[in-house]
Amino acid sequence: MKSSITLLALVALQQASSTPLSKRQDFSNIQYPPGTGANLHEYPPGTGENLHEYPPGTGENLHEYPPGTGGNPPNCPPVGNPVIPFTSTFRVLATPDQVLNGTTNPVFTGGLAGAQATYDFGINVDLDLICYNIRLTGFRGEFQSPARTATHVHEAARGRNGPPRLVFPNPMGDGDVRISVGCMMGPFTTGLIQNGQDTGTGFRVQQIQDNPSGFFADLHSSLAVPGAVRGQFPG
Q: For residue range 100-120, what is the model confidence (pLDDT) as tens digits?
């Protein structure tokens, strides 16, 4: 419904802007009918004009709202609380020295020197929802990955490699600091096909909450394709 209203408003705006000025109605010289309040030098007595203060009992100058009027209810959530409650939260620090290449006998690659990323995640397992705030600094090259984006959560323990289960929009921004912020809900896909199916198929964020140390976050660059930075979820 909202999108329909927005579309109608855009159409109306487009039509109005395309109408020649000569054909638009001139509202500058409208004569209001007698008795409608046009050209009043002052408002008639009793209509509330020029009041020095509001009459007693009308709510003027209240330091706080009276009980029962809805002001500051005791159970009102504090400002800043998330609208959606998280069942768990995680902060992951990803650095170049944690990047591995290979699956059978993975080796450390050194990643992309000077790069670093901080991943703040909030999870709601009932909604199968994950919110993310990713801050990347020191990145060079281009984002590169066979998955849909180059910013991932993979399933693998420390010192091992595994497939991406979640992909996030690559951090963007001017200068050295790049940011990616948002939320997404399952079902999830990564755009990477292994063994005939997408590596996100069937994945639920409950798996991270149940076994956080079995997952890591990373990010890939054309200058460090196996990974620019990597960080293990805290267990």
A: 998 888 889 999 999 999 999
